[in-house]
Amino acid sequence: MMADGEKVLVRVPASTANLGPGFDTLGMALNLYAWIEMAAAERNDISLFGDELRGVPADESNLVFQVAQRVFREAGIRMPCLSIAMYSDIPLTRGLGSSASAIIGAMAAANALAGSPLTDDDMFQLATRMEDHPDNVGASLFGGIVVAQWDGERARKIRIEPPARLEVLAVIPEFHLSTEKARQALPGSVALKDAVFNVAGSSLLVAALAAGDLAMIRHAMRDALHQPYRAALIPGMRRILAEAPDHGALGAALSGAGPTLLALADAASCDKLRLERFMLGAFAQEGVAAKALWLKPDRGGVQILTSPGGNSTFIDNIRHIKGEVRA
User: Fold this and answer.
1) Fewer C-beta neighbours within 10 Å, C or N terminus of the chain?
2) Would you state the pLDDT for residue 326?
3) Which of 303, 298, 301 is CA-nearest to residue 9?
4) Which H/E stretch holds residue 297?
5) How far apart are CA 301 and CA 12, in angstroms?
6) pTM of the entire structure?
7) What CA–CA distance (Å, rounded) separates 192 from 177?
């Protein structure tokens, strides 16, 4: 266990899940991050920074605090009061794994604070039980592309190193869509032909990503299990999925439960401006404001960082780490 007053600082990546056909089984970490600083304290003190955390509770109901306490219980120790500071660039309820990043970041920080009694697999199992699917938490924990299975008792995964030229365009509408609402749109059962279609697509997509065969991605990202049913919730989605490859994308998908739409692209050949204009324009035609972010796969997963320290504040430290402040 760390000495009293010592702080742990972690950086945890966002993630995208499903990648089209890999419903609840495929996840990829993205270089969009949240930072969590944690220390034992005499009383609870939770501070939240950044526009993306507006409306998040800053009391003991906070997810980061709740997850940290669960880690301590798993480790068999008591640390009832915590000082927590958090800054995030990950939009909430937009399909970019904000809750999974909070869970993994909290676990990593609390585990380090407790002397690292939990292994990475321990955290993976615990996080999967909390989320009830392993794709986002696996990606944020391990980085890269994670192919995972959850049978209700144990999660299993294989990590794939993302192809070197792979980039991601995330187009994020300015409205929220809860995972619960997006899941309610799904049918209770699907036709056998649709299930077979997705098994084939997901298998082909995993093979293409593992082999670095970017040209095959276009044929592998189509989905029949969840995207057709969720499209009614997101104006412009059907057009983007159908036409993005004609504007330079390798393929397009709903990111997690949405409403973010993402396109995979080959950095060596994609006309980025053309693809970005198309996706933003498809939303604009439906009266939906959106912003575009060009991202890359994060390859490292959650990281324990060394704080710049000194007398600087948490937010000054984060700006320094991000390169927004020059020493």
Assistant:
1) C
2) 36
3) 303
4) none
5) 6
6) 0.93
7) 29
